[in-house]
Amino acid sequence: MAYLYVKIFHIVAFVSWMAMLFYLPRLFVYHAEHLDNAGFVEVVKIQEEKLFNFIGYPALFCTLLSGVWLIILEPSWLSGGWLHAKILIVLLLVAYHYSLYRFLVAFRENRCLKSGKFFRAYNEVPTLAIIFIAILVIIKPF
Question: What was the pLDDT predicted at 52?
Answer without folding.
Answer: 98
